[in-house]
Amino acid sequence: MYDEHLADLEEKRRKMIHDARLMMIYQISSVDQEFDMNNKLVQEECLAERRELQNAMFTVIEEKRKKLKEDKDGEGELGLSTHHTRNKQRLLRKRGEILDGYLTAQQQSLSSPVISQKRKQDRAKESPSHLIGVLSHRVEEDIEADFHAMTSKRKKP
Questions:
Q1: pTM score
Q2: Among candidates 140, 11, 18, which has minimal Cα distance to 75?
Q3: Element spanning 105, H or E
Q4: In whole angstroms, what separates CA 80 from the centre of its chain?
Q5: What segment(s) does the record annotate as region Disordered (predicted)?
Q6: What integer is the mean pLDDT of 7-31?
């Protein structure tokens, strides 16, 4: 009777160990599947976010290219070279008449109409790049090269 009882306990022990192993295997496989599923979702979200950021960057670059072309086309309309206007501003700054690029009301009445008209145009524009002035040809070429590099990378995947 003692041997039978010991054999029954031994059998229950083996069965419990077997069931515990099966449960452990099940839990590990379910956690692995959940991890794989979450990993795929995160990768898809990452790719979608990357595409959105690239598209946003492309639109910003396109807008800047258009504004550069407009500024380049509109540069000859003022009748003054950029050196002349920059030199005038530099002289005014040295005398302390310009504070952060804006004249007081009295100083505006004394300034030439061409320069005050240019300031009005600069204030009307939204982009800070227009406040700096027309970008050099080299900067424009750099933007073009960056744009072409980004479009070639975008077409590969």
A1: 0.38
A2: 140
A3: helix 105-110
A4: 36
A5: 68-91, 109-133
A6: 97
